[in-house]
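As agreed, record minuted below.
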Amino acid sequence: MDMDYQIEILNEIYDIGEKLYANMGSRSEEGHGSVFNLLTDLGRILVGADRASFWKWDKANHQLWTTSATKVDKIVIPDDSGLVGKALKEKRVIVTNDPYSEPEFNSDVDKQTGYITFSVLVMPVADINGEYIGAFQIINKLGEDGFDEVEDVKKLSLAAFACGITLESETFFTDSQYDTLTGLKNRKGLYHDFMHKYAEYLQVGMKSPFAVFICDIDRFKRINDNYGHNIGDLIIKNVAGILSKHCPEHATAYRWGGDEFVVVMPGTELEECKRIAEEVRVEVKDSQVKASVLPIKATMSFGCSLYDRAKSIEENFAQADDNLYTAKDNGKIRFTDKLKSGIKQACDAVR
């Protein structure tokens, strides 16, 4: 390897290191994804390969998936298939310079992308507890010799280790934004989405409507007191499922806390927001949760509001919350989009 080429490789590595460091202070919506892309690119350069990818192990759904180093948005395979699946199952590095002769090699990925694989190196990566959570994969070593299980693994170890730490961090971050009981995003997830997912909708001067509603379960404390918290949890899960069912594709339901929920609907007018709230209200009222003795029913009240871009998140949700309590003060099992001064027009969904 001549000196000029070595300097070129070092400069590429330094460039990636600089980008990784800059990413630490980035608030990009891509988040951990950009780090994975940089780390896999680093691995590709370190061993002189054509492509690299990082596979995440979704144990709950028994899947492995990747979005890096391909020309498609996402590749998903069963977690008991492919060389990545083999590496994770056997908890060891897999190296092959003749992948099509390997019974575990998943040629469907090549068929999907039009790519031809000549050599593969897969390194499983683990979290801090030693549980395997994904795999670092390098494809097609440049040159004729193929991958060296000793030298190339040595070169890749640090990048693979960093990928494992990054995935664990991403998992902790993602889990912190979701409510474990309902599977909906929680209040932290809502604030994160307002900073990223909805940022373009919230710019002052945007004309696209942006509606929200807050809702809660009527007399929920009484339900818990009379039937126990297990029944209360079942009712909360039932409500979460109904909210998710009625959310349009562009909308998201959140568990705000306790028995209170929020639905955020960018690009939605107030009338459409009220229509969806009414659909949810009716289905919750008509549904029931099976208890040991008899079925339990619940009702909900709603506060609908258009998001005011000139106000803060807290001020906007306070407005929707005021509308919710106006509805509750006037009989519950209803929704409103106005304060008490306009209650006669607003509370048109009655007991």
